[in-house]
């Protein structure tokens, strides 16, 4: 049995180098993606959150990237107040009404 040598060893060498570069690039992207996912969202927490006048904080919870505050006004009505904790700014609210 005789071994056949490659017809063009330069082509084989180029293919090996290209595949090696692709492999290293994919590993770098994988490590970057993992670092971004584990690192999470960077940002501070606001020093103060301004509540609307006349409303009292009843409950607070996290929902995704936001804080959800349950507020009660002077008349006893309640609403959910959505706040971005990094800036302390309100992003929206939902009025809670009792079912009939």
Task: Indicate how many domains the architecture comprises.
Answer: 2
Average pLDDT, rounded to a whole number, is 85
Shape: rod-shaped
Number of helices: 1
Which structural class do you get from the secondary structure elements?
alpha+beta
Keywords:
rod-shaped; 100 residues; transmembrane helix; membrane; 2 domains; transmembrane; single chain
Any overview of this molecule?
The chain crosses the membrane at residues 12-35. Keywords: Membrane, Transmembrane, Transmembrane helix. The protein contains 1 helix and 4 strands, in the order αββββ. Strand 1 (56-63) and strand 2 form a beta hairpin. The longest helix is centred in the first third of the chain and has 31 residues, at 9-39. Strands 1-2-3-4 form a 4-stranded antiparallel beta sheet, with no helix packed on it. With 100 residues, the protein is an alpha+beta fold. The chain is rod-shaped and about 95 Å long. The model has no long low-confidence stretch (mean pLDDT 85). The chain folds into 2 domains: 1-40; 56-96, no CATH class.
């Amino acid at each position: 049995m005789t071994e056949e040598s490659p017809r063009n060893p330069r082509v084989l060498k180029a293919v090996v180098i290209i595949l090696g570069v692709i492999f290293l690039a994919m590993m770098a992207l994988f490590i970057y993606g993992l670092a971004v996912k584990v690192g999470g969202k960077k940002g501070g927490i606001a020093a103060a959150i301004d509540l609307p006048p006349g409303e009292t904080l009843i409950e607070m919870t996290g929902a995704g990237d936001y804080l959800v505050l349950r507020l009660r006004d002077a008349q006893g009505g309640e609403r959910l107040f959505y706040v971005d904790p990094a800036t302390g700014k309100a992003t929206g609210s939902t009025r809670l009404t009792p079912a009939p």
